[in-house]
Amino acid sequence: STYMIKNEGANGMIMDAAMIDGERIVVIGTFTSYNGKPAPGIVCLNADGSVDPAFNLSGTITRLISVTYNAAQKKIALAGIFNGLGGNANIKGVALLNTDGSIDKQFVLGDVGTGNANYAQVLNNGRVVVNGSFTLYNGIGRTNMLILEKDGSLLQKFNAQAPFSGSISRIVETKSSTGEPALLVGGSISQYGVKTVGNFFRL
User: Fold this and answer.
1) Could you please report the per-residue DSSP string of the chain?
2) What pLDDT does residue 2 have?
3) Which residues sit opposite 44 in a β-bridge?
4) What is the pTM of this model?
5) pLDDT per residue over 112-140, tens digit each?
6) Mean of the per-residue pLDDT values for the chain?
7) Is the model more confident about 158 or about 53?
8) In this predicted structure, what is the pLDDT of residue 159?
9) β-strand partners of 70
10) What is the rounded distance in angstroms from the CA atom of residue 128 to the CA atom of residue 41?
11) pLDDT of 100
12) pLDDT at 174 over 70
């Protein structure tokens, strides 16, 4: 394979990655350059491992923690400690990107107080699951897990369950025993609602 030949790669740790378009890869980490070019902890790689120069994300990025991609919606979800992504002052904590690296301005994460978002994933219906360390969302008591509408508002139907304890690694969309849409949630998880769970549950 010629992948990454003559490419320097990242000058720091790679934390996560997601394939988009069936060939390009979005990589996040603690690096400040990739293949010798400035990269503020995020870069998009072409099929040969070279940097896609058109994917250029601006803003103040302290740390990116997770990146996921939904092929049905063609949306990239970033979670971490950042603000002002793409020149949009309201975009902080969680950002949805289009495949060209531009910001989806429709989605704005609400106020999580002093907490942080560690994981975000767009579902096939466009809603967004967010996991992190927080107890409030826009002043409403919510513990560590949210299911949000496309604009970042709370989806009340799924947010009454509390508390949630743990960190999400991945979500797989499936169906319940009655054929209704459901989510398989996996990670380091000990509790969802009043139930004790062993790192994996169906919602």
Assistant:
1) --TTTT---BSS-EEEEEEETTTEEEEEES-SEETTEE-SSEEEE-TTS-B-TT----SEEEEEEEEEEETTTTEEEEEEEEE-GGG-TT-EEEEEE-TTS-B-TT------TT-EEEEEEE-TTS-EEEEEE-SEETTEE--SEEEE-TTS-B-GGGS----EEEEEEEEEEEE-TTS-EEEEEEEEEEEETTEE-SSEEE-
2) 55
3) 26
4) 0.90
5) 999 999 999 999 999 999 999 998 899 88
6) 89
7) 53
8) 57
9) 75
10) 23
11) 93
12) yes
Cis peptide before 163 (omega within 30 of 0): yes
Q: Are 191 and 197 in contact (CB under 8 A)?
A: yes
Give the tokens for residue 202. Answer: 């169906």
Backbone angles phi, psi at 123, to 5 degrees: -90, 170
Q: Per DSSP, what are the bridge partners of residue 196?
A: 191
Distance CA 180, CA 192 (A): 20
Return the structure tokens found at 24.
């390009």
Q: How confident is the model at residue 93 (pLDDT cuts 50, 70, 90)?
A: very high
What's the CA gap between 174 and 203, in Å, rounded? Answer: 10
Report in angstroms the alpha-carbon separations of 165 from 1, 17, 27, 65, 98.
43, 25, 27, 18, 31
Q: Quick one: tokens of 149?
A: 């509408």
| Inter-CA distances, 42 with 77, 109, 147, 186, Å | 12, 20, 25, 25
End-to-end C-alpha distance for the chain, whole angstroms: 41
Question: φ and ψ at 69, to 5 degrees?
Answer: -140, 135
